Known about the structure:
With 154 residues, the chain is of the alpha/beta class.
Amino acid sequence: MRKFSIEFVVGLFMLAGLGAFFYMAMKMGDIGLFDQHRYAVTARFSNTSGLKSGGVVELAGVPVGKVESISLDPESYESVVTLSIQNNVKLQEDTIASIRTSGIIGDRYIKLTPGGVDDYLVDGDEIIETESALDIEELVSKYIFEGGDKSEQE
């Protein structure tokens, strides 16, 4: 009888460990099995260079969602980014979405700046005000080539 109760307790311990391992694997892999309910909004950018699906969406420095997908609108040649936002976060209709870089050469993420209107975005709405990614290579080349032209003119 004693041997049966020890084996039973060890079995329960093993099941609890496997359950904890499964839960942590889902959380670390960012698989939305235990995820909160979310709603989707879109934003259009002229340049999403470096932004990836699964990227973080932040509001006041706090992660409130993620980038679901990035696609190209063939008519306007703009990037259409679909954002998945937590249900408990309400975004005003005049929210501004900006593509930022964490650190000097870090990952790109979306920074949301809240607006002041009393109307809120709902599932399927679009964020109108956007700021595209800053392309460092383009800035450097523009500075170098414009600087060269000025020295030749003098």
